[in-house]
## 1
Amino acid sequence: AQSVTQLGSHVSVSEGALVLLRCNYSSSVPPYLFWYVQYPNQGLQLLLKYTTGATLVKGINGFEAEFKKSETSFHLTKPSAHMSDAAEYFCAVSDQNKLSFGAGTTVTVRA
Amino acid sequence: DTAVSQTPKYLVTQMGNDKSIKCEQNLGHDTMYWYKQDSKKFLKIMFSYNNKELIINETVPNRFSPKSPDKAHLNLHINSLELGDSAVYFCASSRNRAYEQYFGPGTRLTVT
């Protein structure tokens, strides 16, 4: 069985500050890991993914995430927050059969 | 071009009614999914079809019946709607089960 834990249901950052969203996973097989973003009243949009290879993956909108097998983590970062980053962020793990999502982290950006 | 589309976007209905939500993808993907997002934004998979074959059915009441007439379409029919069915339902598709999923815009179902 696989699962995802997102630490912190809500993160508030100042515009221009670092965004750090934490995700830990459990999986019985080598995982595929994803971060999705959901803007208000919209569907989920893929930010980035890790399948194999380089453990630091870059995504859209300046986000990146690092896969750390020893820590079973896949934290998402963005060096400088923008007002448009305010959204819900979901980490997800796939065991190559189905996706399991974390509970989500709401990001608010203060001017 | 919309990759994954759903209709309707909003659905308001009374308890006991039967309703359907339609989903279409133009990405040429083999696998399609239905998810339910509750009021706390928690996402849970309901069903998955691969090449029109049901491969995932997650402890969903049998009032919910998916139908996949072809690889590009996956519809969700709900009988005898209950208050607890109120949620946002998302359709998604992927190349196969191991790949990233692309989501539709969602259907907000409100049961009164």
## 2
Amino acid sequence: DQQVKQNSPSLSVQEGRISILNCDYTNSMFDYFLWYKKYPAEGPTFLISISSIKDKNEDGRFTVFLNKSAKHLSLHIVPSQPGDSAVYFCAASETGGGNKLTFGTGTQLKVEL
Amino acid sequence: DVKVTQSSRYLVKRTGEKVFLECVQDMDHENMFWYRQDPGLGLRLIYFSYDVKMKEKGDIPEGYSVSREKKERFSLILESASTNQTSMYLCASSPLGATRISSGANVLTFGAGSRLTVL
């Protein structure tokens, strides 16, 4: 049972445009959400996070939006750069869950020149 | 620069062999995790540990065991490797969470991964 879903396995965007990556979850107990970026042959690296008491968090070119009623979050990258080409994973955790993260299946982002 | 180090980047083993994957972190983190990454399935949690000699099953523990004899080291063991255990294995660590909205505890730091092929 996939509790965190990323329905788009891949996304292609032109350099300078906005990239929007989506993530849906089913477990209403999740109260903290994170995005990780992964390059080939490297481990995932933390990108940005948001707690359930907020609906938006921004860090430079990256913004995460959370819609709790829809159990949906999205990552916006503006402007997109070729170096952003990677696999992006969303992840979720719940208080009392022992800090373990439940990950989505990932979205391969390709930023083209 | 804090690090999670996985000793083997690439391994090739035969079916039935016992396999050890080692992970060491230098951040004095309490929590350590083992995930595997497979195409179309994302990262799935195998085992995790909150403290020395403690372990908890994740979502897919079958066929695996773990050992945590020291705080900085967390080992994943495949008692009898099978071809369906061919995968990328990722170790991670995080500090112990104390508060309800504790951002730091939720941020896992990952190692570079160990690519295991079982023939």
